Amino acid sequence: MAVTDLFAGEIATELLKQLITISRKSASCRSSAEQLIVYIQEILPIIQEIKITGNELPQHRQRQLDIFSETLSGGLELANKVLNSPRWNVYRNLRLAKKMEKLEKNVSRFMKGPVQAHVLADVHHVRVDMAERFDRLEWRLGAMKIGVDGDGGWLGAAVKRVEEEEKWCEDNLVNLGGTGLELGKMKVKEMLMVNKDGKESNVVGIHGIGGIGKTTLAREICKDNEIKSYFSNKVFFLTVSQSPNVEQLRSKIWTMVSGNTIMGHGDMFPQIKLGYNVDSSARTLLVLDDVWTHSVLEQLLIKIPGCKILVVSRLKFPPSVVDCSYELDLLTESESISLFCHFAFGQTSIPVCADKELVKQVVDECKRLPLALKVIGASLKGQSEMFWTSAKNRLSRGQPLCESHEVQLLERMKLSIDYLSERERECFMDLGAFPEDKRIPLDILINMWVELHDIDEEEAFAVLVQLSDKNLLTLVKDARAGDKYSSYYEISVYQHDVLRDLAIHLSNVGGINQRRRLLMPRREAGLPKDWERNMDEPFNARIISIHTGEMSEMDWLRMDCPKTEVLVLNFSSSEYFLPPFLDNMPKLRALILINYSSSNAILHNTSVFSSLTNLRSLWFEKISLPLLPDTTTPLKNLQKVSLVLCDISKTVNHSAHLFPRLSELTMDHCINLTDVPSSICQMQTLKSLSVTNCDSLQELPSDLGKLSSLQILRLSACPNLKKLPEGVASLGRLKYLDVSQCVNMGCLPEGIGGCSSLEKIDMRECPQMRSLPVSVGFLRCLRRVICDEEVSWLWKDMEKGRPGLCQVPQECFTLDWLAE
Prior knowledge:
single chain; 820 residues; five-stranded parallel β-sheet; 24 strands; leucine-rich repeat
């Protein structure tokens, strides 16, 4: 990877630039310079192949390439001397010309010798190996989605690694050096639990720069046994963010603290009144994380007897608002080294074989910022010494000391992005399209990358795992999944707000009309003024992300977006007028609408769907789906539709004919859905049908068996669904059946054995399941059954011939997922 870095980074660029200049200005060195340019340009494609494969070369090959890269590094120094040598110094110029000739011969010897052939052989070997692996990827992706291999392949392994890293941080971050988080934890606990001078602190703060570990400290305090005992386990954590819906947050706070839960999906939250009776003897701790402004905080500081509030922010709020506050310090030198070494070497000290001074210099350049140490350490893991030296040099040039810590952090984090492949870097920057502090459903991200970067789903998953391994995003498993990997549907993506800031910072380079991404970093009342000032020219962005409140027809700009392929509309309102410029997006392939208000939004201007002829993926969240006009043109390219928290009761039966090539349909937490419309059974191309968390659902259409292409059927958490139609037995291609948390389902269909391709059944938390049909014995492909201990005995006869068939996940009683 050292040579990859050389050619992909600034050294090669500078060297080629210098050689071109020499060929024009220096008569004595022109011939050598021109030949060197040819040699370097010849080997660039080979280096690029090594970079694309991402594989390490054998040690002896890497050593040969390292020697070659050192030769070229010396060539860069020589080129600078040639350009700086005055023309009148004939003797010096002759000596430099001789050295240029020697450099040319050394490079020529490398190019014409056996090394290039060795490298080509290695690259060919890697290419063949990758081809063999990708032949198996289609099956592996299917296994990853449904989890038949138990640990979920690379995705399951990545999730497990994240969980292990989090546990390591919990166990070690507060013990790295006796200070830092340990001291902070002790001080904040004291502020929350001890009265000083007879005066109680009702509002306590934690403040410090971004990426220093404030949220980590707050979560450690929430899990502390003394804190939980003192507050009788009434400890609540709420993320505020830069773009908060204050009224919704106030309602959540009241629900948490008062214990008055809101039943159903009602559109209205109860008004918070200080006169409500709350047990003043019950202590409660409320943590408000990521608070950005004084005005928002004041609106959230609701005085309720017995309730203490812990405010986490980059700002130090005045004593009139926060009674006392703890400033989280940077890590000490020893803590920094331990944290960095864990992510770079897998141990908490510098290995004997490593260059101790070089490691310390890199750690020092991370400025004792935990997030920088974590990300940069992961990016250097397993790299050569020359790679480390290059990283140290780039870090040292990163930012003058007069800049703020936030700017320094962004500049240093940029190093880890520079070392990504081009595709990984582009995918990382796409993450800036989503609001801060929100979990991103895996489906949205994978679909977006597939459409934007012309890659297959398996390649998108590989990028996801690479970014996770480098700590540039976090894979989060649904708490309800227990300890076993079940399927990728239970995974979401979270990104630290500093990393999101970095993605936006990198995306905002260049003129606004020429950027590949047009992003709004936070919610605003309308579109940015600089968009309006530049609307006379087309916007060439391939992805546009908008974050506003309610939008009427007059609020939109008439933008021309001929190259846009992904449009993300984040908003918070009960009514929303779709942007008229959708008519000017001929290449749009993915449309994502997410409503963050407390009530479902009614859409207007739905006639624009007729112009979206290239649309392939559609995600609606918290929308009251409209009846599309009769004149709507069928969306012949649409393949994926996801409807989350939507009211769809009046629309699906009338819209099925508009999606003739639909392959995936997801309906999650959908309001008033009592039965799945029979018109869905006309979608012969449907491969995946997910109807989950729909508590009103009572039955499925009897002709479900007509879905001859169906491979995945997910019906989890539908408590009023008591049985499956017998038509399920006709689904000969079905691979995955999920009826988990269907608490009133009493049995599987009698003819379930007809599902000859079925590989996995998830039937966790189905306590009414008393028996199995005899036909389960015909499920020859069945490899995994996830169920509770009480149900596992039903499978004992089949398990005799298939050891390990049943998996019993650890029971999970946490309700933390309700806050998402």
